[in-house]
Each structure stands twice: as C-alpha cells, then as structure tokens.
C-alpha cells in the first residue's frame, strides 16, 4: 500500500545539507537527482514541498549554469527555477543564446535533446530555431515511447497519429515497454500515460497502468523501474506525478 509518509522519508534521506538530492543516502547531490527529487516532492504534497523548498533553493543558488554544457541539463536547471518560483539570472538568456546555435546544428540529435533545445529556443524567443526544431521533430523516425513522448511535446499531433503504437506497447501486467513486444518499465509507462493524457482512451488502459505503477512501490517508500527492483528518484518522481494525475482525472 502506497504510504505518503514513507515516501517523504525516502526523499528526506536523499536530501543533502546543500539542498540537493543524491541518488542514495550516501551519494552526493547532482543536478539530475535534484531535478527528480524536487519534482517528486512537488507532486507528493503541497505541505511537504513547502517544507523542503527553502532547502532546495540553497542548491539552486549554488548552481553554475556556465558549467552545464548539455542542453538537457540546462533545461532541468531552468525547470528547477520555475518549480521553485525563483527569478532566473538575467544573464542566463544571453548564455543560452550563445550556445543554442552551436547545439542545434548538431546532426546526432536524440528526441530528448531536440525537446530540450526546442524548450530553450522558446524560452529566449528564438523563433527561427524553434521552427527548425519543430520541423525536425515532425519528421523524426522514432523507435521508443520515450522518443515519441519528447517529440509529441513539441508536436501534439503525433499523439493521435501514433496512438496505436502506444496502445500496443502496453503489456498484460499493465505497464508499457519501450515499444510493442518489449518488457514493461516504469519510465515507459510514464511516457505512455503522458502521451495518452487528454485523449479519448478507455479507462481500463489507465487502471491497468496504475496497477503496474503500484506494483513498483517498495517498502522504503520509493518506486522501482519494475516490480521487485531497486527504488530510484527518477522512477519515484515519475510514479508520483502519474498517480497524482490519475487520481485527479479519474477519481481513483
């Protein structure tokens, strides 16, 4: 049975003195772990998030954006500022503008990177780069649900277009694989349900998925990538966000 109190304990054990989150109680904080730990806290409880928010800001104020040479990490940093309701440094937009053209010209772009670049280009209102990335997203030959999720965040029309691909990726255990016929994992289930949100889908799809997510819950208060696995901040954040969304939209 999912326990909000146990999940709070799970998160607090990974919240460091500098305000960041670490993957385990013994490992140091990282931007990625702090991003997922913050999202998990935000979706878990407004009261709990209010409690940990001042501490997480401590990590944020120590974050040096100029050390972030990957667009997805920069995206995560910006989202932290927004979730924590902190005004972004004025010089940040200039830094993004300086790096954006170099990044967007890369040929070996994965969908997650295309999405991050698209988000950054919209953030600083670089319309030509935004349009170019939207065109690339529309023509990208994706392979996995993760790919489709990031591309559909840019082009919502892809959700309807590839609905059958998403539905065929659901397995008998209620979870979703990377693509049809592959093993269920929590992250794929998150991507699938985010794609399906807002579409006219039979409730049974969501009920089965909820069952799989709850089966990934561990006694330490965290969620694993699959039932019986080790708890991670990423899978915990994904699970809490989806369960929060399902409870509001379906009253389950």
TrEMBL record:
<dbReference type="GO" id="GO:0003824">
    <property type="term" value="F:catalytic activity"/>
</dbReference>
<protein>
    <recommendedName>
        <fullName>Prenyltransferase alpha-alpha toroid domain-containing protein</fullName>
    </recommendedName>
</protein>
<feature type="domain" description="Prenyltransferase alpha-alpha toroid">
    <location>
        <begin position="142"/>
        <end position="225"/>
    </location>
</feature>
<dbReference type="Pfam" id="PF00432">
    <property type="entry name" value="Prenyltrans"/>
</dbReference>
<dbReference type="InterPro" id="IPR008930">
    <property type="entry name" value="Terpenoid_cyclase/PrenylTrfase"/>
</dbReference>
<keyword id="KW-0677">Repeat</keyword>
<dbReference type="InterPro" id="IPR001330">
    <property type="entry name" value="Prenyltrans"/>
</dbReference>
<feature type="domain" description="Prenyltransferase alpha-alpha toroid">
    <location>
        <begin position="6"/>
        <end position="63"/>
    </location>
</feature>
């Amino acid at each position: 049975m999912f326990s909000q109190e146990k999940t709070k304990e799970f998160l607090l054990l990974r919240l460091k003195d500098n305000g960041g989150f670490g993957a385990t109680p013994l490992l140091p904080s990282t931007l990625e772990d702090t991003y997922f730990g913050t999202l998990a806290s935000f979706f878990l409880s407004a009261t709990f998030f209010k409690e940990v928010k001042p501490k997480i800001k401590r990590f944020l104020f120590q974050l040096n954006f100029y050390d972030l040479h990957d667009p997805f990490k920069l995206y995560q940093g910006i989202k932290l500022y927004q979730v924590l309701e902190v005004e972004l440094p004025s010089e940040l937009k200039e830094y993004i503008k300086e790096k954006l053209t170099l990044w967007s010209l890369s040929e070996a772009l994965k969908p997650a990177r295309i999405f991050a670049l698209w988000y950054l280009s919209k953030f600083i209102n670089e319309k030509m780069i935004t349009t170019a990335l939207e065109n690339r997203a529309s023509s990208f030959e994706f392979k996995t649900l993760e790919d489709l999720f990031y591309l559909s965040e840019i082009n919502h029309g892809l959700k309807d277009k590839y609905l059958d691909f998403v539905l065929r990726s659901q397995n008998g255990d209620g979870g979703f694989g990377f693509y049809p016929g592959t093993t269920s994992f929590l992250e794929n289930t998150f991507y699938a349900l985010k794609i399906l949100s807002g579409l006219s889908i039979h409730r049974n799809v969501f009920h089965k998925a909820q069952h799989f997510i709850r089966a990934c819950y561990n006694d330490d208060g965290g969620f694993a990538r699959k039932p019986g696995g080790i708890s991670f901040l990423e899978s915990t954040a994904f699970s809490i966000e989806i369960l929060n969304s399902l409870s509001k939209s379906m009253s389950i």
